[in-house]
UniProtKB/TrEMBL annotation:
GO terms for molecular function: hydrolase activity. CDD domains: CE4_NodB_like_6s_7s. It comes from Candidatus Cetobacterium colombiensis. InterPro entries: Glyco_hydro/deAcase_b/a-brl (IPR011330), NODB_dom (IPR002509), Polysacc_deacetylase_ArnD (IPR050248). Transmembrane segments: none annotated. Residues 36-216 form the NodB homology domain. This is Polysaccharide deacetylase family protein. Keywords: Hydrolase.
Amino acid sequence: MKRILKLLSIICVYFVIFFKGNATEKIYSSGDKKIKKIALTFDDGPNTSSLSNILDLLKKEKIKASFFFVGNRVVLNKEEVKRAFDEGHLVLNHSYSHSNFGTATKDKVFSEIENTNSVIKDITGVSPKLYRPPYGIITENVKKAVSELGMNIVLWNVDGEDWNKKRTIEQVVSTQEKETKNGSVILMHTQPDKNTSYEALLKLIPYYRDKGYEFVKLDELLDIEAYKN
Ligand SMILES: [Zn+2]
């Protein structure tokens, strides 16, 4: 199912890019290819142990990352959101319910994004300007909602499929190593039921450092603002 959604999301993205001349300006999936910088991004939190492990590791390694959190999980795990923000990571928007918005109305998408911004702002004091759609699905209604909220969409160009229960840690690591280039936005997840992403990171961080990549947050990689003024 997730593979179908992934394929659908890619088709949707290209449909939008192909048919809407100026639509691409607000959809980012990578940064400057001339500079040896990459951004680690983590979707689907906040969700206890897996996120805590990743935050501990990033702290130890002095790496700042970008987290796309789900609103209905934010209200249940406020301390983790506060911790991620206080430790210098970006706290960004991944919808309120993590639904498939393929057929959703603009109003539905708008309220999901707005509610998530609101619960994040209650904790951090800032309102995210960057939105990552669940499953990467972008429709005209998603675009309109994001645009009316004065936000931008951030996708990715590296996906080791750490969310896929059939993938081993070695497979996740190997795909990420192959796909990563200068300016890459790397998609990873914090998972409630397993630690694949954390275990993969233990191998990937030394690999990326050995290749000379610098870890930066999305606002630096893409040269855009992460939060609304
Ligand atoms: Zn997600």
